[in-house]
Design a protein that fits this description.
Elements: E1 5-8, H1 14-23, E2 28-32, H2 38-42, H3 45-61, H4 64-67, H5 78-101, E3 106-110, E4 113-119, E5 122-127, E6 130-134, E7 136-139, E8 143-145, H6 161-164, E9 173-177, H7 181-193, E10 196-200, H8 212-223, E11 228-230, E12 234-240, E13 246-252, E14 255-261, E15 263-266, E16 270-272, E17 305-307, H9 318-332, E18 345-348, E19 354-358, H10 361-366, E20 371-377, H11 382-387, E21 393-399, E22 405-411, H12 415-418, H13 420-428, H14 432-436, H15 448-453, E23 457-458
Parallel strand pairs: 1-2, 1-7, 2-3, 7-17, 9-10, 9-15, 10-11
Antiparallel strand pairs: 4-5, 5-6, 8-16, 12-13, 13-14, 18-19, 19-22, 20-21, 20-23, 21-22
Helix pairs in contact: 1-9, 3-5, 3-7
């Protein structure tokens, strides 16, 4: 079969590209080996944030005395927690699946795609026992959990982020390898469900891509909920005894140590899902980590083939994947868009969440610019005090010469939403002085941006 386009992978770019092409009357083959919707719908944003919402409700109920009411002992019905999550994700998945299968000009292939070559300008792709071809191919296969080479790892019943969503009972003691976003989000949620939680991070601190003060505040948040954290501790071996208990041997600054638990979550990073694609057959280049190399319009090294979403290594988020599809679509239609122009923004959904946009303090120091900075603890902000949500801090970074925002971090109450004030503002190119003179709403968290701008001082190198 020949098509006008083939979309490989149905995450948060592929289906939208397919639908727009189909809307123009072009024939599209959409190939998906797992479930339409990709990580976000099936294993990521939708199910995990639904779980986190249940965990927060449980946590807040347990704080009743602080707010003037009493609930008595909190009992977690984990079966109902998981049922709520599954209703949400199945509804989203079925909606997207039905959309793709019922859209005119789209043919859905259930199977994994593998390139087999190029002939007469058509790229050939095998799916199951059939070979299809098209002059345009869009790769949206995403990424999956990276499993490190630890002695004994293949002999234990470890969990990945996907497996966590299939649990039928709360772990008695959840041990987590990795102090990044997935590990911390799941660790805090399952602590609130009643599990004992231990987090092991090989590097010197948690969330290592964040600034040190952010990492310290994150640690404070977790420790306040009796989560045990071991940093600078490398797992050297794992094993599972006849009773199902998992043993993790550690190399720490103080020598050897061991942590035991009933369940082990491996959350040390992600790797691109390219192993089944046979990229070499058409000459698609990848970098040393296996991510597909693209230009700023997300074209690969092969004419007519694009890579969008996590697989291109330009962002590991649903919103970057969706934004990729917009850049590709505009490029195809002659509109000047490129990935280099976007200010990276993201959130980590511990509670309270971290919202980030643009440069970190560390990156600003390395940029060679004249930088202004200010920070403010959440316990200095009226709305946070009134809500009883005083963990975290604000931070903004400004170019001293242009007076433009370089970046911001908001770790605290609604930090994921609040930081987007800066994210959208950065897209305008306006100076911070415009924001400083704006009228804020009181009482809110975001009202403190004008105050912070007035407190800027030089960043020490």
């Amino acid at each position: 079969m020949k098509y006008n386009a083939i979309v490989i992978g149905a995450g948060q770019s592929g289906p939208f590209i397919a639908a727009k092409l189909a809307g123009e009357g072009k024939t599209v083959a959409l190939v998906e080996g797992a479930k339409i919707g990709g990580s976000c719908v099936n294993y990521g944003c939708i199910p995990t944030k639904t779980l986190i919402a249940s965990a927060r409700a449980i946590y807040m109920a347990g704080r009743g005395d602080e707010y003037g009411f009493s609930t008595g002992p909190i009992t977690v019905n984990f079966e109902r927690v998981m049922e709520r999550m599954n209703v949400r994700r199945s509804g989203a998945q079925e909606g997207m699946d039905g959309w793709m299968r019922n859209t005119e000009n789209i043919t859905v292939y259930d199977g994994y795609a593998s390139f087999v070559g190029t002939e007469d300008g058509h790229h050939q792709v095998q799916v199951n026992d059939e070979v299809i071809s098209a002059p345009q191919v869009f790769i949206n296969t995403g990424a999956h959990a990276f499993i490190p080479s630890i002695d004994g790892i293949d002999t234990v019943d470890y969990l990945t982020n996907k497996d966590m969503l299939e649990l039928t009972e709360v772990p008695e003691h959840l041990v987590i390898l990795g102090g990044g976003y997935i590990g911390l989000e799941m660790g805090q949620a399952f602590r609130r469900f009643g599990a004992e939680v231990t987090i092991i991070e090989a590097r010197s601190r948690l969330v290592v891509r964040e600034d040190e003060d952010i990492a310290e505040s994150v640690l404070e948040i977790l420790q306040a909920e009796d989560i045990t954290v071991h940093t600078d501790s490398k797992a050297t071996a794992v094993s599972q005894d006849p009773n199902g208990i998992i043993h993790v041997a550690l190399d720490t600054p103080d020598g050897s140590a061991e942590v035991t638990g009933t369940h082990l979550l491996v959350a040390v990073g992600r790797k691109p899902s390219t192993d089944k694609l046979n990229l070499e057959s058409v000459g698609i280049e990848t970098n040393e980590r296996g991510y597909i190399i693209t230009d700023e319009q997300l074209r690969t090294s092969v004419e007519g083939i694009w890579a969008v979403g996590d697989v291109n290594g330009r962002g590991a988020f649903t919103h970057t994947s969706y934004h990729d599809h917009e850049i590709v679509w505009d490029t195809i239609n002659g509109i000047d868009r490129n990935v280099a122009d976007r200010n990276m923004a993201y959130a980590m959904y511990i509670d309270p969440p971290l919202g980030r946009v643009g440069m970190s303090e560390t990156e600003a120091k390395a940029s060679g610019r004249n930088v202004l900075i200010t920070t403010k603890p959440m316990d200095n902000i009226g709305r946070a005090l009134e809500q009883g949500e005083t963990f975290g801090l604000f931070k903004i970074l400004v170019d001293a010469d242009t007076r433009e925002f370089l970046g911001a971090a908001v770790l605290g109450y609604h930090g994921d939403d609040v930081v987007q004030v800066v994210s959208y503002y950065m897209a305008t190119g306006a100076t911070v002085d415009v924001m400083k003179n704006a009228l804020p709403i009181h009482p809110t968290i975001a009202e403190f941006f004008p105050t912070l701008i007035g407190e800027l001082s030089p960043l020490e190198s």
